From TrEMBL:
<dbReference type="InterPro" id="IPR011251">
    <property type="entry name" value="Luciferase-like_dom"/>
</dbReference>
<dbReference type="InterPro" id="IPR019922">
    <property type="entry name" value="Lucif-like_OxRdatse_MSMEG_4141"/>
</dbReference>
<protein>
    <submittedName>
        <fullName>LLM class F420-dependent oxidoreductase</fullName>
        <ecNumber>1.-.-.-</ecNumber>
    </submittedName>
</protein>
<dbReference type="Pfam" id="PF00296">
    <property type="entry name" value="Bac_luciferase"/>
</dbReference>
<dbReference type="InterPro" id="IPR036661">
    <property type="entry name" value="Luciferase-like_sf"/>
</dbReference>
<dbReference type="GO" id="GO:0016491">
    <property type="term" value="F:oxidoreductase activity"/>
</dbReference>
<keyword id="KW-0560">Oxidoreductase</keyword>
<feature type="domain" description="Luciferase-like">
    <location>
        <begin position="22"/>
        <end position="121"/>
    </location>
</feature>
Amino acid sequence: MTVQLGGVGLWAPLGLWIQEGARLPEAAAEVDALGFGAIWLGNGPTIMDVASSLLDAAPRITVATGIVNIWQHPVEEVAARHAQLTARHPARLLLGLGNGPREPSQWLLSPYRMMVEYLDQLDASGCSAGDRVLGAVGPRMTALAAARSLGAHPFLTTVEHTRQARAALGVGPLLAPELKVVLEADPGRARSIARQALDFYLSKRGYSANLRRLGFTEEDLTGRGSDRLVDAVVAWGDMATVVGRVREHHQAGADHVAIQVLSEDTDQPRPDRRRLPREQYRRLAEALCGV
């Protein structure tokens, strides 16, 4: 039995789901009922625990990790939790794996070699290629995703990257890019909200290197990003504009688009006041479920 993602899912930082507290089961059940194909969880120490809670609360929807950081999550623990959760919820957990922050003692190690070793150990544990996806943006990791997993889950990319990734993956492997969305028509306000989220990622070598491969310059990457960069990696505007960008990714070769809604509620200066953008989820469901 194969994991089903549908055409559109929702990506959110792990902390937003944790912040729901006792409301988490209700929120998960609502997202499930809205018709989205998957809930994608950003990385964090308790990612597998939250995935378990979501699977228990929502009867249908797929839960995907986007991503489990292979430097911070021991493979033995991940394999054991994956086996436990898939036994309880067959074909509803997609294990997304990727490179993330690491300790100084790990800086000289090869992310590619580390991923290969991690996959080898998952194979030995019984977690097959069809149970996982790789958070791949560069050409080498994308090729590994096609060879050793269900496919690729690129993060912070553009429609052009989706086109290139589909060409590299070929026909068959899953391509499920993350897409940041701001439901705001005012350019200044929309870009300001977008830049609050981009600030963290533009300083990271892997993301900035991929954006350079896509033709962005040092000027584009300076500070919180140029308007050209923001407009390429974030779909902002009215609902028709956002839906249009999702369709562009599908037309470029994406099987599934994982939407991350950005708003002032998702990026409050005080983490304890951050909330899932559930009202935006409802609006997006009306326009997108069935795309």
